[in-house]
């Protein structure tokens, strides 16, 4: 069973979740840990070797040390780069929170990873199917959450709202990571100080803007995994409680 696993969410779409997720895998792998990354639902992509694949999911697949087939990393690859529930409806794809959560738990329990990440799509409350949202998927998987915050005007409100929603869902906020936007943020240090003061979790790092095509190795240098100290027994309890009797 995976020793440490975390659900990666963000304050919005395009805030740097995939870069953070891959960078966490790189940083953990550099310590000798066996790593894997999952992206249960992805929207948008291209055809690679005859198979439609999402670039974010491919990055997780390539960065992790445990080899998984693409369909294991990303069981639902939607072609349109739009909200997942709309893309699924247009493409005739059925989205099931229960099925996606079962898939993630199966991989986490049986692939022998020391460190794993499960990356969501969009923000915390992105709709999936019916009244279900990405938050319901995170709760069904039952992992502690790492929040990625785009450092731009409005980030304080977005971060505090999202953190409150995470804890209201009964999931621990394990940590947060700041992700700089291309344009420098006014009063950046003061905003970071406010986030450190008000968020109920440690800051795991602040990524500067690393250009249009950053790589996980670059970003990993700005991260600190030491605060992510979750005992195996605690993780097991979180995962098993979602499986029912």
Polypeptide structure, described:
With 245 residues, the chain is an alpha/beta fold. It has a single domain (4-239), classed as 3-Layer(aba) Sandwich (Rossmann fold), CATH 3.40.50.300. 39% of the residues lie in helices and 20% in strands. It has 10 helices and 10 strands. The protein has helices spanning 17-30, 55-63, 70-73, 84-91, 97-110, 134-141, 155-168, 188-198, 216-220, 232-240; strands spanning 4-10, 35-38, 41-43, 46-48, 51-53, 76-78, 115-119, 145-151, 173-180, 203-207. A 6-stranded parallel beta sheet has the order 2-7-1-8-9-10, with helices on both faces. Strands 3-6 form a two-stranded parallel ribbon. Strands 4-5 form a two-stranded antiparallel ribbon. A hairpin with a 2-residue loop joins strand 4 (46-48) and strand 5. Helix 1 (17-30) packs parallel to helix 2 (55-63) and helix 7 (155-168) runs parallel beside helix 8 (188-198). The radius of gyration is 17 Å and the shape is globular. The model is unreliable at 231-245 (pLDDT under 50).
What topology does this entry show?
Blueprint (H helix, E strand, L loop, with lengths): L3 E7 L6 H14 L4 E4 L2 E3 L2 E3 L2 E3 L1 H9 L6 H4 L2 E3 L5 H8 L5 H14 L4 E5 L14 H8 L3 E7 L3 H14 L4 E8 L7 H11 L4 E5 L8 H5 L11 H9 L5
Parallel strand pairs: 1-7, 1-8, 2-7, 3-6, 8-9, 9-10
Antiparallel strand pairs: 4-5
From the structure above, extract its key features.
about 240 residues; alpha/beta; Rossmann fold; six-stranded parallel β-sheet; two-stranded parallel ribbon; 10 strands
